Amino acid sequence: MSAKRSYEYARLWVPLYDAAALTVTRPVYLIEAADGFEGIAAEKNTTLMGLFNELGRAGWRIDMTAQRVDHPAPEFQMLIDATLDEADHAVSPDEVAHAVGSGGDPAGAVTQFDVYPMRRRLD
């Protein structure tokens, strides 16, 4: 008799910065799940494979075939900027809403995303 398996699904949004922003001080990755988006501010030398390994240790299985999103909505840039503001200034999400665009640590302009489907087994 086999047990019914349940999975949690999400998508990893990896920003592809324009040529002028190649010296991004800190990359930001977005995870889209059923309850919305969460931004992750990584260290400057974080590689995509390093991020995949970290997510894998948390139980995520990542489909390595990415879907390219060429014209992301402006809200994605706001999520990236807000994530950096929150990480750098350690403020509450309400205060971040007022800090976005105030100059902090710019993430650089995002012109494209690669989106990776993910899933993990719920126990």
Structure description:
With 123 residues, the chain is an alpha+beta fold. Helices cover 27% and strands 34% of the residues. A hairpin with a 2-residue loop joins strand 2 and strand 3 (36-41). It starts with 5 loop residues before the first strand and ends with a strand. Residues 96-106 have low confidence and may be disordered.
Secondary-structure blueprint:
Layout: E1 6-17, E2 28-33, E3 36-41, H1 48-57, E4 61-62, E5 67-69, H2 74-89, H3 93-99, E6 110-122
Quick summary:
The protein is of the alpha+beta class and 123 residues long.
Main traits of this protein?
alpha+beta; 3 helices; single chain; six-stranded antiparallel sheet; 123 residues; 27% helix
Which percent range describes the beta-strand content? Answer: 25-35%
| Largest pleated sheet | 6 strands, antiparallel
| Total helical elements | 3
Report Rg. Answer: 16 Å
Structural class: alpha+beta
Distance between the termini: 17 Å
What is the residue-mean pLDDT, rounded to a whole number? 78
> What percentage of residues falls in helices of 4 or more residues?
25-40%
The ordered string of helix (H) and strand (E) elements is EEEHEEHHE
